[in-house]
Write a structure and sequence with these properties.
Elements lengths: L3 H8 L13 H12 L11 E5 L2 H15 L10 E7 L8 H18 L3 E5 L2 H4 L3 H10 L6 E9 L21
Helix pairs in contact: 2-4
The structure holds flavin mononucleotide.
């Protein structure tokens, strides 16, 4: 069985080199809207999505994340960063799962509209720091929320040359 969605699921790859041009509004909105259609626990729509295109803020997020990780450019020079926040997992234990599904939808949508994306980790840690909290206030995000994950987003400048085959026995059916 095959169709466009199944093909996109197979062909989406993490992109780590981006063209400098900014993502079009139309494509960005398609990606963000796709995120909002992810299922969420109890249908509560717990996650909050913030797309950042202002170059000084993109650079700050990149630096802050890099300080947590020890990487000079963790967002790989992507012109757009999408941040996903959710209720602190200590308070609402489904927020990590909810936010991850939102991020998954957006990565697939990005691929479907000709963009490249890569999940970039360590938002929990970076938005727990005083500088991270200050940044949340600037972004208009309630500072009691937790960082769940982020995407580097832009037009791909290169694609991974190969993909790992799926591991043996990855799935099974018990009848
Ligand atoms: C939870 C999670 C965290 C990730 N964190 C990073 C990251 O910080 N930096 C990065 O370059 N890639 C990150 N990735 C991307 C993975 O490395 C990538 O999905 C994996 O190598 C498989 O490649 P593919 O997405 O092209 O299939 C992350 C992926 C997931 C699901």
């Amino acid at each position: 069985m095959d169709n466009e969605v199944l093909k996109a699921l197979r062909e989406r790859r993490s992109i780590r080199r981006f063209k400098p041009e900014q993502v079009s509004d139309e494509a960005l909105q398609a990606v963000l809207e796709a995120g909002t259609w992810a299922p969420t626990a109890k249908g509560l729509q717990d996650p909050w999505i913030v797309a950042v295109q202002r170059p000084d803020l993109v650079a700050r997020i990149d630096r802050l994340n890099g300080e947590v990780w020890g990487h000079p450019t963790p967002f790989y020079g992507a012109p757009t960063i999408i941040l996903v926040f959710g209720t602190d997992p200590e308070v609402w234990p489904n927020s990590l799962q909810d936010g991850s599904l939102v991020l998954g939808n957006m990565m697939l949508a990005a691929h479907a509209v000709g963009l490249g994306s890569c999940w970039i980790n360590r938002e929990r840690e970076m938005f727990a720091t005083p500088e991270g909290k200050a940044l949340m206030r600037e972004l208009g995000v309630d500072e009691s929320l937790a960082g769940i994950g982020a995407l580097a987003l832009g037009y791909p400048a290169s694609f991974p040359p190969s993909v790992k085959p799926r591991k043996e026995g990855y799935w099974r059916i018990i009848r």
